[in-house]
């Protein structure tokens, strides 16, 4: 063969652990430089081979993940399966494919680049690790975490000891078994939090217990590894070299904590609030990360250890944590890390699993998984966690991920575990984690905790009872309108309002979600959000102006948008709120155009509307509420067609009756032939509620009543458009209206935002200039809720009943 065609030659030699491949490669065979035009082979050069490898890896893993995603499988599993498909056991059997795509020299370069990417990935995982969570660890979490780690470790090692006494095994198998046990005892914090985030349960009750338990497992693992590692080194070493390596590792960790951490903190402090880090600051930290990797190698430690420890001591969250995630997500996590896990699959060979030794290793793995599941389940049940949730928690702790896969390949490359043990560990990881993820998804619904809560709404609240409102804010633009809406709700000593302000922030640059009161957080989580401090001050000032009639308490939620509604539901249940007010996902500019549109916030609202433990109000703010600061009469229109949500909106409007600065217009849209419907239960309830409202407002000049008779949806639209010309500043309407009703029939064909309902969606378009509050009573399917969503008299204090006679005969809404 000519030198143009050949990039390397190879032969087999005895390696440190087994027979290995020796590659002799030409140093100038890097860039093809158009050799194909002269009859050469482009893929005889290393760079084209590397590019082809990345393209193939990305394509194969993306296709596999697309197929596995409906089964709730993770990206790591797809990448490992992709590696197996492209590896020795499948496509690697084809000689031409193996020589062209993964030649020995080309694979060496791929592994080097993948290790570099994985080193940065470990740094990101370290940044995500929030060590302040240790303060939140309680006795229950400690017991669950310790038993989840020690149960598989002790039972597995005992089983290994008994098996080795009963059966004669190869040296490689005996050496592998203790490491197989220790690897199965792990539940790394980054792996568990990544799993929980993928399944959208990171900020659920079981998610928080699993997060803290995995942190306890990590700490237990480090303690056991240090103690037994030191003992083994002292017993086996003939000189002090190993002791010196441990000493230098301790010195290196000290340098990271007391030398490099202050540098990184000083870089973070120089970043202007609300801005990203500058390029020179970013490159400085990259240089420090690379240096830590180099020093780790020099001290005989894995190259990712130094960057991981550096990440742990790096401040998480904005600006550094989120900046690194944003900058590294695409290239490192999207391209380089998949190459690392594909290599893990490439190294696996099914044919390495043989007879008795394979059965023994498989048995030990099964024992360890069983012990880990049981070791998590039993203490969870001991601490009164219900069986279904305890099973879910045990399944979570049994899942494996990126850290374990990287450990498997490192130990296999170093000859510590055999190829047989490596293959069985990977197969068991894929099977157990795949089955567990699917079961967790179907068994655990975080909203079940609060959907079983007793019904709470305006309709069951007596007018003179304390009104409890949960106000959600995403940014400073939400605050003025919400405060003025609270002011319009007429807080007085006879009608007090308890306000619970929940600041919602997207989880960025950290792995664990946060839900706590601001008094306990002491400003640590909001230090980089000046607008959140201003929001807190604004609501506190409102409470001071209404002292004796308003009480305010602040909470902060830092969570993924996909599960943020669970935190809202948790606070609503814990504080027994009547209604949750959330801002609409669109914001308007002064000229009436949409200034901001957030699909993520829309997802939060839709999830909340679907799974709410109390009434929900979506506020579409066009600035009129915010600009009206009580200087003039505030024009409010209640649009009433009928149904439980309109009745809930009507109950809320009773708060406006005593407010001298509000002029309320009640618009009741009714069909021309409404008399023939009066015998229906729902129509009779609507009439009863409207009559109660009219009786309370007789002689009140600020309350006007209009009854509009229409034939169809066209007539309804005409009435609604007339509101736009009446000087209305806020229109209140119920969310749900029966689509088959002639009053709204056909409107759903143009429905862009179903979460607002048929009329709410129409009012939220650019055709109207006033703000809108869309009200929904508690979601159907919750406790005490019939599918028909019936209502009860305003202020009756009773829950949903079949008729008023039922309410008369029932003395408590829990019994109804």
UniProtKB/TrEMBL annotation:
<feature type="transmembrane region" description="Helical">
    <location>
        <begin position="209"/>
        <end position="233"/>
    </location>
</feature>
<dbReference type="GO" id="GO:1902600">
    <property type="term" value="P:proton transmembrane transport"/>
</dbReference>
<feature type="transmembrane region" description="Helical">
    <location>
        <begin position="245"/>
        <end position="268"/>
    </location>
</feature>
<keyword id="KW-1133">Transmembrane helix</keyword>
<dbReference type="InterPro" id="IPR006153">
    <property type="entry name" value="Cation/H_exchanger_TM"/>
</dbReference>
<protein>
    <submittedName>
        <fullName>Putative K+/H+-antiporter</fullName>
    </submittedName>
</protein>
<keyword id="KW-0630">Potassium</keyword>
<dbReference type="InterPro" id="IPR050794">
    <property type="entry name" value="CPA2_transporter"/>
</dbReference>
<dbReference type="GO" id="GO:0015297">
    <property type="term" value="F:antiporter activity"/>
</dbReference>
<keyword id="KW-0812">Transmembrane</keyword>
<feature type="transmembrane region" description="Helical">
    <location>
        <begin position="75"/>
        <end position="96"/>
    </location>
</feature>
<feature type="transmembrane region" description="Helical">
    <location>
        <begin position="351"/>
        <end position="369"/>
    </location>
</feature>
<keyword id="KW-0813">Transport</keyword>
<keyword id="KW-0633">Potassium transport</keyword>
<feature type="transmembrane region" description="Helical">
    <location>
        <begin position="390"/>
        <end position="409"/>
    </location>
</feature>
<dbReference type="InterPro" id="IPR057290">
    <property type="entry name" value="CHX17_C"/>
</dbReference>
<feature type="transmembrane region" description="Helical">
    <location>
        <begin position="47"/>
        <end position="68"/>
    </location>
</feature>
<feature type="transmembrane region" description="Helical">
    <location>
        <begin position="175"/>
        <end position="197"/>
    </location>
</feature>
<keyword id="KW-0406">Ion transport</keyword>
<dbReference type="GO" id="GO:0006813">
    <property type="term" value="P:potassium ion transport"/>
</dbReference>
<keyword id="KW-0472">Membrane</keyword>
<feature type="domain" description="Cation/H(+) antiporter central">
    <location>
        <begin position="499"/>
        <end position="625"/>
    </location>
</feature>
<feature type="transmembrane region" description="Helical">
    <location>
        <begin position="421"/>
        <end position="440"/>
    </location>
</feature>
<feature type="domain" description="Cation/H(+) antiporter C-terminal">
    <location>
        <begin position="635"/>
        <end position="779"/>
    </location>
</feature>
<dbReference type="GO" id="GO:0012505">
    <property type="term" value="C:endomembrane system"/>
</dbReference>
<feature type="transmembrane region" description="Helical">
    <location>
        <begin position="280"/>
        <end position="300"/>
    </location>
</feature>
<dbReference type="GO" id="GO:0006885">
    <property type="term" value="P:regulation of pH"/>
</dbReference>
<dbReference type="InterPro" id="IPR038770">
    <property type="entry name" value="Na+/solute_symporter_sf"/>
</dbReference>
<dbReference type="Pfam" id="PF23256">
    <property type="entry name" value="CHX17_2nd"/>
</dbReference>
<feature type="domain" description="Cation/H+ exchanger transmembrane">
    <location>
        <begin position="60"/>
        <end position="437"/>
    </location>
</feature>
<comment type="similarity">
    <text>Belongs to the monovalent cation:proton antiporter 2 (CPA2) transporter (TC 2.A.37) family. CHX (TC 2.A.37.4) subfamily.</text>
</comment>
<feature type="transmembrane region" description="Helical">
    <location>
        <begin position="108"/>
        <end position="129"/>
    </location>
</feature>
<dbReference type="Pfam" id="PF00999">
    <property type="entry name" value="Na_H_Exchanger"/>
</dbReference>
<feature type="transmembrane region" description="Helical">
    <location>
        <begin position="141"/>
        <end position="163"/>
    </location>
</feature>
<dbReference type="InterPro" id="IPR057291">
    <property type="entry name" value="CHX17_2nd"/>
</dbReference>
<dbReference type="GO" id="GO:0016020">
    <property type="term" value="C:membrane"/>
</dbReference>
<dbReference type="Pfam" id="PF23259">
    <property type="entry name" value="CHX17_C"/>
</dbReference>
């Amino acid at each position: 063969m000519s030198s143009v065609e050949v990039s390397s030659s190879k032969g087999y030699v005895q390696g440190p652990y087994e027979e290995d491949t020796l590659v002799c490669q030409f140093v100038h065979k890097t860039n093809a430089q158009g050799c194909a035009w002269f009859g050469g082979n482009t893929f005889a050069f290393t760079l084209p081979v590397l590019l082809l490898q990345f393209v193939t890896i990305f394509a194969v893993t993306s296709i596999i993940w697309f197929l596995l995603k409906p089964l709730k499988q993770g990206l790591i599993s797809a990448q490992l399966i992709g590696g197996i498909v492209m590896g020795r056991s499948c496509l690697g059997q084809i000689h031409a494919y193996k020589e062209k795509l993964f030649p020995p020299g080309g694979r060496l370069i791929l592994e080097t680049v993948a290790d570099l990417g994985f080193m940065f990935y470990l740094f990101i995982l370290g940044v995500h690790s929030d060590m302040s969570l240790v303060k939140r660890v309680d006795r229950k979490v400690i017991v669950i975490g310790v038993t989840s780690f020690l149960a598989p470790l002790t039972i597995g090692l005992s089983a290994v000891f008994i098996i080795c006494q009963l059966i004669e095994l190869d040296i490689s198998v005996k050496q592998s078994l203790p490491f197989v046990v220790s690897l199965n005892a792990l539940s790394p914090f980054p792996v568990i939090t990544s799993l929980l985030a993928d399944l959208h349960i990171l900020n659920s009750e079981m998610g928080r217990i699993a997060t803290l338990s995995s942190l306890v497992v990590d700490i237990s693992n480090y303690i056991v590894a240090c103690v037994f590692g030191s003992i083994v080194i002292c017993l086996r070493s003939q000189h002090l070299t190993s002791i010196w390596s441990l000493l230098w590792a301790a010195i290196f960790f000290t340098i990271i904590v007391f030398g490099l951490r202050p540098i990184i903190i000083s870089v973070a402090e120089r970043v202007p609030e609300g801005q990203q880090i500058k390029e020179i600051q970013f490159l400085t930290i990259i240089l420090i990360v690379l240096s830590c990797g180099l020093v780790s190698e020099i001290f005989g430690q894995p190259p990712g250890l130094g960057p991981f420890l550096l990440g742990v001591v790096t401040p998480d969250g904005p600006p550094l944590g989120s900046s690194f995630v944003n900058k590294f997500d695409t290239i490192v996590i999207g391209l380089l890390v998949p190459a690392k896990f594909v290599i893990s699959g490439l190294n696996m060979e099914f044919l390495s699993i043989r007879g008795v030794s394979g059965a023994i290793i498989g048995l030990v793995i099964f024992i360890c998984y069983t012990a880990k599941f049981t070791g998590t389940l039993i203490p969870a049940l001991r601490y009164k966690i219900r069986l279904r949730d305890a099973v879910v928690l045990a399944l979570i702790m049994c899942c494996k991920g990126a850290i374990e896969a990287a450990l498997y390949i490192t130990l296999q490359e170093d000859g510590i575990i055999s190829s047989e043990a490596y293959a069985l560990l990977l197969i068991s990881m894929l099977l157990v984690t795949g089955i567990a993820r699917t079961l967790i998804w179907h068994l655990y619904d975080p909203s079940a905790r609060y959907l079983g809560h007793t019904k709470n709404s305006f309709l069951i609240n007596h007018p003179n009872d304390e009104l409890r409102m949960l106000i959600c804010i995403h940014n400073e633009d939400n605050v003025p309108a919400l405060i003025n809406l609270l002011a319009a709700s007429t807080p007085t000593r006879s009608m007090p309002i308890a306000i619970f302000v929940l600041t919602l922030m997207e989880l960025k640059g950290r792995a664990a979600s946060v839900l706590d009161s601001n008094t306990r957080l002491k400003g640590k989580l909001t230090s980089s959000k000046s607008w959140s401090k201003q929001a807190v001050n604004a609501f506190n000032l409102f409470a001071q102006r209404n002292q004796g009639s308003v009480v305010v308490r602040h909470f902060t939620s830092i969570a993924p948008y996909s599960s943020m509604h669970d935190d809202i539901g948790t606070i609503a249940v814990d504080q027994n709120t009547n209604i949750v007010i959330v801002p609409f996902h669109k914001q308007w500019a002064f000229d009436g155009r949409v200034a901001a549109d957030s699909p993520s916030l829309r997802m939060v609202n839709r999830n909340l509307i679907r799974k709410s433990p109390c009434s929900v109000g979506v506020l579409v703010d066009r600035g009129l509420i915010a600009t009206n600061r009580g200087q003039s009469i505030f024009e409010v229109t209640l649009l009433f067609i009928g149904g439980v949500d309109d009745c809930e909106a009507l109950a809320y409007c009773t708060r406006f009756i005593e407010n001298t600065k509000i002029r309320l217009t009640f618009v009741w849209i009714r069909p021309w032939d409404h008399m023939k419907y009066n015998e229906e239960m729902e129509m009779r309830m609507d009439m009863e509620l409207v009559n109660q409202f009219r009786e309370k407002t007789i002689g009140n000049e600020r309350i006007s009543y209009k009854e509009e008779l229409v034939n169809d949806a066209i007539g309804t639209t005409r009435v609604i458009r007339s509101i736009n010309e009446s000087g209305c500043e806020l229109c209140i309407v119920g969310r749900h209206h029966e689509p088959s009703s002639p009053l709204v029939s056909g409107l759903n064909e143009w429905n862009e935002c179903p979460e607002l309902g048929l009329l709410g969606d129409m009012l939220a378009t650019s055709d109207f200039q006033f703000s809108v509050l869309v009200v929904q009573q508690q979601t159907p399917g919750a406790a005490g809720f019939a599918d028909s969503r019936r209502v009860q008299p305003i202020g009756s204090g009773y829950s949903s009943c079949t008729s008023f006679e039922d309410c008369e005969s029932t003395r408590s809404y829990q019994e109804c």
